[in-house]
Each structure stands twice: as C-alpha cells, then as structure tokens.
Amino acid sequence: MKPVTLTRFLLEQQRRPDSTCPAELRLLIETVARACKAINHAISKGALGDVLGSLESENVQGEVQKKLDVLANDLLVDANEWGGHLAGMASEEMDTIHPIPNRFPRGEYLLVYDPIDGSSNVDVDLSVGTIFSVLRAPAACAGREVCEDDFLQPGTEQAASGYAIYGPQTLLVLTLGTGVYEFTLDRELGAWIMTDGPIRIPEGNCEIAINMARRPQWSSEITHYINERLTNEKAPCGRAYNMRWTGSMVADVHRILKRGGIFLYPSDSRTPGKARLRLLYEANPMGLLIEQAGGAAIDGAGRVLDIQPASLHQRVGLILGDAAEIRTLQDIAVTA
Ligand code: AHG
Ligand code: MN
Ligand code: MN
C-alpha cells in the first residue's frame, strides 16, 4: 500500500462531507508540522549546534529557560506569523499573548503551545516534545485585536491538538476531533508518513507514571490509590503495578497511547490550587488526544476538558490514560 503523508491525510479530511478540517486549519497544521521539523533539526544537532544548556532568563512562571525553549518558541512564532491562518498565539515561554502583527493577514484560529515539553531532559539526550492546541478565535474579536480572554476557552472547544516527539523516531500525533493519528518523520524525504491510527489506548496495562518524590504533596486519596496499586498482588493483571516516569509528559503520554496505563501529576493537596502542569498547552491538548483514543482525563475531580480557564498559564492537576483504570481510581479514592 502507498504511504499516506500528512498532507494527503489532511486533504482527505478536508474533503469529507462531515469534515472537521477546513482548508485554513489544514494549512495551519502543516505549518506547525513544518516548524516541528525545524525544532527536530535543532535538537538533533545538540552540542554541535550550540543549542544545549540554560539561558540567564526565566519565563513568566519563574522557570529558568533552556536555550531550546526559546529557540523552539521563536521557530513556532516565525513559522506561524505570516501564514494568514491565525489571529494570535500563546505559549509557555511568552508572558502574554502574541497577536498577529498588522503587517500580516489575520486568520480565524488561535494557537497555544508548549514549545519544548520535558526541557530538563534535553541536555541528557532523552525524549522531549512540542505540544499544541488549536482554538477558534471568538466571533466577538472580529475587527479588534485579540486579547487574553479570547484564549480562555475550555478544552472541549479545541479544533485540533497534537504533539511532536523528538525521540529515537520523530513523530507527530494529531487529532482533529475524529480519532488520533500518528505520523513518523521520514528524515530523507522530509515528509510525515502515517504509521498508526486511529489509535485506541490498549486496556488493562498495569503501568503507572507518577513522580514518587512528590508523595508528601499528594492527597490521602491519591496516596491510597498508589499504595494499593504498587503493593496489591491481586491487581487486575495478577501482580503489583509497574512504574515508569520520564519527566517528559509527551513521552509518558505517548507510551500510554500506544501501550496503555495511567499518568498522574496530581495537584498539591497542601496548597490549594497548586499544581505542576498547565491547563491550556499541556492538559487540554493531551486530554483531547487521550479522550479521542478512548481514554479519560480528569483534574482529580472532573473532566479536564470541561474546566473554564481563568488565566493563560493556569496550572491544573492531571490524571489521564486508560478510562477503566481512571474509574477504578475514583472508586478506590472514595474508600480512602
Ligand atoms: P516543561 O519542560 O514544559 O516545563 O514540562 C515539564 C513537565 C512535564 O513534561 C513532566 O511530566 C513534568 O513537568 C516533570 O515534572 P518533574 O520535574 O516533577 O518530574
Ligand atoms: Mn511541558
Ligand atoms: Mn516547556
């Protein structure tokens, strides 16, 4: 069978009678995918390209920026600014939103992204990624510049989301709200070739991803659930759960999409509202992908995609993966 490129997949999605992919969205996704190729190229040069290490700067969240955080952010801004598909962008590495400058045509979409996810891993040659979410600019912002409030939409409103993963292979994993598809970068051709999809999360894999060092901050419910799963030999697969934690959410989520299991970065029970991951450019795009692959994504209480954001860099507790396991977690948690 002839390989299906990303370009062909998007065109065929656009032509479907029930299409969720108008031409403008197709071209936007192609642009993001092109920027991810450039990011992949920079990362793969490593020390030879002088791209490793930290800068003296901090982002708005007080995190030291890596050279690649800033480089990847700039590559995404430069690639997407002039295409005419966007009204504005927002990113982990920009304090506030980036409206499309007046010298370029303005489009109907908003792009929100984490340019390098897992950037603490970049200097030690572990997998990192780029996460993105596409929203529609609200009708109310026609005729005026976009503002931060325009970006504060629940995850259910996403037109598309995805990630690139820069690992042993470079992949692009994408949803337009009609299933999840994986494309592998053919480095010789420079083309993204479909290698999996529609992806369904395999059920019943007894594997957990959590940072155990944060244990003192967990709620009694999460502590109870983890203890139960790591020690109880009567777990569904007849043995205690296995554990994996890469420190790159993209890598952990990709493993869950392909192999099953559950990922937890719960909010801090001692400091109400304190959590690690960001709602708009980490939890929401991953939540949509996971739901589209038959899984579930909750903030500990309810569905992540239903949360009405209050600010651009808002953080949120995140538990995602195998839907049945998340239901079990909620059952175990109530007995804590
Ligand atoms: P980022 O590099 O964009 O700041 O995100 C890192 C996130 C996520 O990728 C990962 O799951 C988590 O932070 C790792 O946290 P720990 O440092 O607690 O392991
Ligand atoms: Mn991140
Ligand atoms: Mn990041």
Topology of this structure?
Layout: H1 6-15, H2 23-45, E1 54-58, E2 64-66, H3 67-81, E3 86-91, E4 98-99, E5 109-117, E6 128-136, H4 148-151, E7 160-166, E8 170-175, E9 180-186, E10 191-196, E11 207-209, H5 220-231, E12 242-243, H6 249-259, E13 262-265, E14 277-278, H7 279-292, E15 296-298, E16 315-316, E17 318-321, H8 323-334
Parallel strand pairs: 3-5, 11-12, 11-13
Antiparallel strand pairs: 1-2, 3-4, 5-6, 6-7, 7-8, 8-9, 9-10, 13-17, 14-16, 15-17
Bound molecules: 2,5-anhydro-1,6-di-O-phosphono-D-glucitol (AHG) and manganese (II) ion (MN) (2 copies).
The site of one manganese (II) ion has 4 residues, from strand 5.
Number of separate domains: 2
Report the principal-axis shape.
globular
CATH superfamily of the largest domain: Fructose-1,6-Bisphosphatase, subunit A, domain 1
How many strands appear in the DSSP assignment?
17
CATH level-two architecture of the largest domain: 2-Layer Sandwich
* Cα distance spanning the termini: 52 Å
- Radius of gyration from CA coordinates: 20 Å
The percentage helix is 25-40%
Task: List segments where confidence is low: pLDDT < 50 over at least 5 consecutive residues.
Answer: none
Query: DSSP helix count?
Result: 8
Q: State mean pLDDT (0 to 100 scale).
A: 95
SS-derived structural category: alpha+beta
Bound molecules: 2,5-anhydro-1,6-di-O-phosphono-D-glucitol, manganese (II) ion
Cross-sheet strand order for the largest sheet = 4-3-5-6-7-8-9-10
Order of helices and strands: HHEEHEEEEHEEEEEHEHEEHEEEH
Largest sheet: 8 strands, mixed
CATH class of the largest domain: Alpha Beta
Which percent band covers the strand fraction?
15-25%
